[in-house]
Give the backbone structure.
Amino acid sequence: MFTIFHTPRSRSMRVIWLCEEMGAPYEVKPASFFEPTPEFLEANPLRTIPAFKDGDVRMTESIAIMVYMMEKCGPTDLAVKPNEPAYADYLQYLIFSEATAAAPANALIAGKFLAKDGAGENWTSGYIIEALSKRAAFLEDRLKSREFVAGDRFTAADIAIAYTIGLLGFVGVSGGEASQSYHERMTARPAYQRAAAIQ
Ligand SMILES: N[C@@H](CCC(=O)N[C@@H](CS)C(=O)NCC(=O)O)C(=O)O
């Protein structure tokens, strides 16, 4: 049984959505980085969401957790295998979703909600918005001619990227119509809907 420390709409959504797609057994523990429980702190002293436990295993990176779960519960078609033509694209977009496209948004979100008296709006926040807009445009270009971000079936890369497109929308960055329609298609999946209903 996997344990997932979760805050609604946070990156733990990627992990829960994947469990729902795979039918993997999991339990959810509500978590807050502002008021961490001792159990959450034990799983993740960094206090970031998600945190993940599987027996003695502790993990804190959403994409790494997804790869771990697919290896543990697979084989699954949600992972693209090295002998498939889409393998490189799959890896590229799985990692891109967080490392390049989502990570810079954290400073912006913190500035928006935590900085006092507009102090979060400065040269750096402008730079981050510009950088995120480039990432969104890159994805928009990719998604104009594709049903899925990598290969010709739904994979974990779609979970990772669809979450990121939602996060970019949350900070006011939109790639355009193709990204929007892709996001609507992906989040209409019953597994996403079940994950999104969890508080
Ligand atoms: N790279 C990590 C990022 C985790 C992360 O930044 N999560 C956000 C919530 S979605 C968070 O905990 N932010 C608080 C912080 O950065 O201290 C992942 O993909 O899981």
Remarks:
- The pocket of glutathione is lined by residues 10-11, 33, 48-50, 61-63, 98, 103, 106 (CB under 6 Å).
- The chain has two domains: 2-76, 87-193.
